[in-house]
Amino acid sequence: MRNRTLSDLDRVVALGGGHGLGRVLSSLSFLGSRLTGIVTTTDNGGSTGRIRRSEGGIAWGDLRNCLNQLITEPSVASAMFEYRFGGNGELSGHNLGNLMLKALDHLSVRPLEAINLIRNLLKVEAQLIPMSEQPLDLMAIDAEGHTIYGEVNVDQLKTPPKELMLYPRAHATREAALAIAEADLIVIGPGSFYTSLMPILLLEELTQALRRTPASMVYIDNLGRELSGAAASLSLREKIATMEHYIGKPVLDALIVGPRTEVKDIDDKRVIQTALEAQDIPYRHDRQLLRQALEQVIRPPG
User: Fold this and answer.
1) Residue of 260, 242, 259, 263 whose CA lies nearest to 251
2) 18 in the Ramachandran plot: left (φ > 0), alpha (ψ -120 to 50) or beta?
3) Which residue in 32, 28, 95 sits closest to 63, CA to CA?
């Protein structure tokens, strides 16, 4: 029997946020509509945070970032979507893509439908699903027992939090749980550990789906040191333990890591350790090298 390749898979699902998820999705964009990204929606910084503070709603920034990285046909529509206002006025620093998504939200279009409308406008085939369609914030209990509210503040913790949670309690997007249930391969990471990856693992419907899915599951580690002191202090083993603690069972089959990552205490997962750095930005994953590493994951070892 010939080895399977990524092209043979019917459903690949990637979880995360920010630039990391965008890189994974763009490296797998050849899968077209067979690729789904489940995107973190708890950001409260930058343009996204300003929109949330004044208008409410979910965080659109990571969804916009993923759409940007999936655009294959530059157009007037894509240039508009990526446009960021300069100057010193009220619009300064705002991204037009965020404002477009928020405008659709104001028109009472369901967030998932708003994304689908923009996907069609930008000719993006891969599906993108917000982790929840309800406005949520990340919360943490720090080492001293204090409650830390909001993603920006959690990112500033110097030591790992005792506990993570979402506020208020909310449901995952139904289509996200369904995508996990139907997946052949699930990819988590890379991305800011506490603020891009962990929020998705705090929604019960998604962790339940991750416990039940028969899909192979792979974690892609970061290449650069995290800016968050708390996340930077974690070993690879500690990251895996944290993720599997919140999921509720050991689910990760394989890990993709760069050549400098310490892996000697990992003996219960398959480890693909290889060069992954992009030539232009060393702490970002090269799309082609990432795809090759993911091809190795679905090939039987040996």
Assistant:
1) 242
2) left
3) 95
Q: Write out the H or E segment, with its range, that includes residue 37.
A: strand 35-39
Q: What is the enclosing helix (H) or strand (E) of 166?
A: strand 163-167
For residue 111, report the phi and psi dihedrals to the nearest 5 degrees. Answer: -50, -40
Contact in structure between 14 and 43 (CB atoms under 8 Å): no
For residue 262, give the 3-state DSSP assignment: coil
pTM confidence score: 0.95
Q: What angle do CA 69, 75, 80 make, to 5 degrees?
A: 75
Q: Using alpha carbons only, what angle is made at residue 94 by residues 190 and 104, rounded to the nearest 5 degrees?
A: 85
DSSP string of 42-91, one letter each residue: ---SHHHHHHHHHH-S---HHHHHHHHHH--S--HHHHHHH-B--SSSTT
Residues 69, 42, 247, 165, Cα dihedral to 10°: 160
CB-based contact 28:294 (threshold 8 Å): yes
**What is the band of 1 on the pLDDT scale with cuts at 50, 70, 90?**
very low
Please name the fold of domain 6-298. Answer: Rossmann fold (3.40.50)
User: What are the extents of the domains in the chain?
Assistant: 6-298
Tell me: pLDDT of 300 over 80.
no
What is the dihedral angle through the alpha carbons of 288, 273, 191, 126, rounded to the nearest 10 degrees? 40
Q: Which two tokens stand for residue 56?
A: 């409410």
Assigned token pair, 285: 């994953």
Q: Quick one: CA dihedral 169, 173, 178, 181, positive or negative?
A: negative
What average pLDDT does range 256-261 have in this prediction? Answer: 95
